[in-house]
Amino acid sequence: MDLARIETAVRSLLEAVGEDPDRDGLLETPARVARMYAEMFAGLKSDPGRHLAKVFDEDYDEIVLVSDISFCSMCEHHLLPFTGKAHIAYLPSGKVVGLSKLARVVEEVARRPQVQERLTQTVADLIENRLSARGVAVVVESTHSCMTMRGVRKPGSMCLTSAMRGIFRDDPKSRSEVLGLINRVS
Q1: Cα(first)–Cα(last) distance of the chain, in Å?
Q2: Cα dist. 136→93, 106, 165 in Å?
Q3: Could you say which of 67, 81, 119, 186 is the most buried, measured as most Cβ atoms within 10 Å of its Cβ?
Q4: Catalytic residue set
C-alpha cells in the first residue's frame, strides 16, 4: 500500500472541494485517511482461504450455521462503506472447520473495494472449494452508505444477497431448511 501517494491524493481532494488542507483540523487528515485505506483494503493482498486450511475429520452430516457475522466493506462504486452481517451454513462431507475461521474469511474478504454480490459469492466459493462441502449457503444483509447518505437517501434500506452451492442450490427441500434456520436466528 502506497501511503504517501494516498496522502497526496487526499490532500488534492481536499483542495479540489475548496478546503485548506493546511488548516489545523485537516493537517493530519491525509495521513489518517491513508492509514484507514490501508486497513479497509488489507484484504486485497491476502488469501482468505488460508483460514480454511486447518480442518478436522468429523463424521457429521447435518447443517453447520454461523450467523450474524458482522462486517464492514467498501463499495467500489462510491468508495463509501457498507456494513452488515453474513450468515454462513455448510453441509460437511467428513471435514469441519473451526467456527471462528468462517468469521475470519468474511472479515478478510470484506477488506476490499467491491460490490455486495461479489463478497457473497467469494465467501461461498471459498467454503465450497476449500472444505469440499456438499452444500454452502451464504446470506449477506447490509446497509449501504451510498444509498443512505447520498443519492436516493433512504436510511434503513437493506440489501440482501445470497449464494447457494451444492445441495442448497439443487435440492429445494435442503434450500428451504437452511433458509429457515438462517431466518430463525437473524
Answers
A1: 36
A2: 11, 14, 5
A3: 119
A4: 75-78, 116, 144, 146
